[in-house]
Amino acid sequence: MHPTLTPGIDVAMVVFYAFVLFFLCLVIYLRREDRREGYPLEHEVTGRLESEGGFFLTALPKTFRLSFDRGTVTTPTKGREPVEIAARFTDRFAGAPYAPTGNPLVDGIGPAAYAQRAHHPDIDMEGHPRIVPMGVALDFQIERRDPDPRGMPMLGCDGGVSGVVSELWIDRADRLIRYLAVDLETGGAAGGGAVLVPMMMTRIDRRRGVVVCDAITAAQFADAPRIGATDRITLYEEDRVLGYFGGGYLYATPDRQEPYL
Fold first, then answer.
1. DSSP letter at 126?
2. In the prediction, which pLDDT does 261 show?
3. Mean pLDDT across the stretch 137-141?
4. What would the pLDDT profile of 212-247 be if each residue is shown by its tens digit?
5. 171 Cβ neighbours under 8 A, 6+ residues apart
6. Which of 63, 86, 173, 217 could make an SS bond with 156 (beta carbons 3.0 to 4.6 A apart)?
7. β-pairing, 210-213 with 176-183?
8. 78 burial class (0-12, 13-18, 19+ CB within 10 angstroms)?
């Protein structure tokens, strides 16, 4: 009887081959999983639709059950029509930047881009909308040592008055202000109604008694996305609002699109 259990077998080579096989399977799995969204794929330069890639690059359908009886979602999502954007290539090579051909803030170009998120609000652990007006969350109030921006004029990055802050939208889970509702009917911007301005893109000037938004000009408030309800904001609407104001740091004025040096 041979004194060893593995005569003629190189254990180190077996372990090495097992690792290589495992790593190869891992790469294939990750490449399949990272293509669950984004169909149909298109060539970056020509715009030609690409194939799905076959077995090694196409994930199997997977269905997720959403919480609080909001239905199911199946990925990968197929059958989407290609999205036309109001922009053109500045050059014919992969990675060339786009140049807007319309209003980039409205068209969702570059930093103003937004995702097709769900048309329901973000919710807390109990299933209630997280972000609501302070008039709905009656158990919240402004700390007495902090300024209350309600009633203050809202200024754009050009110093013009866009409207008056009429309400605060708070995050009940994180205990902070997410948006300022600006009533354009009482201000100088064209167009009526109220728009939500991300709180993180504003600054309260106590000395002058105004709120300054350095993202866009006063006139550009008129084209800001509106929300469909008065007591909640959906995930899709949040992405639209954040994209519009965030894109203003590049597209609000022509000089912002020029290099610093």
1. T
2. 67
3. 88
4. 999 999 999 999 999 998 899 999 999 999 999 999
5. 130, 131, 177, 178
6. 217
7. unpaired
8. exposed
Q: For residue 160, which amino acid is it?
A: G
How many CA atoms does the CB half-sphere of 135 hold within 13 Å? 8
Helices (H), 4-112: 11-33, 104-107
Peptide bond between residue 76 and the one before it cis (omega within 30 degrees of 0): yes
Beta partners for residue 176, in sequence order: 171
On the 0-12 / 13-18 / 19+ scale of CB atoms within 10 A, 248 is buried
* Residue tagged 């269905």 (tokens): 63
Tell the residue number behind the tokens 């954007």, with chain if given: 85
Q: How many whole angstroms separate alpha carbon 188 and alpha carbon 56?
A: 57
Residues 5-22: pLDDT tens digits? 566 678 888 899 999 999
- What is the pTM for the complete model shown? 0.81
Q: For 88-113, how does the pLDDT look when each residue is reduced to its tens digit (9 = 90+)?
A: 888 888 888 888 999 999 999 989 99
Distance CA 174, CA 20 (A): 45
Task: Assess whether pLDDT exceeds 60 at residue 188.
Answer: no
Q: What is the pLDDT of residues 58-93, one digit of tens each?
A: 888 888 898 888 888 888 776 666 677 888 888 888
Cβ pair 249, 110 in contact under 8 A: no
Local structure of 245: helix, strand or coil: helix
Helices (H) and strands (E) in the chain, counts: 3, 11
Measured CA distances, 209 to 145, 155, 183, 189, 206 (Å):
15, 11, 17, 19, 5
Long-range contacts of 27-30 (CB under 8 A, 24+ apart): 28/56
Maximal C-alpha separation, the chain: 97
Token pair 């105004």 in the structure block, residue = 210
Residue with tokens 């409207």: 163
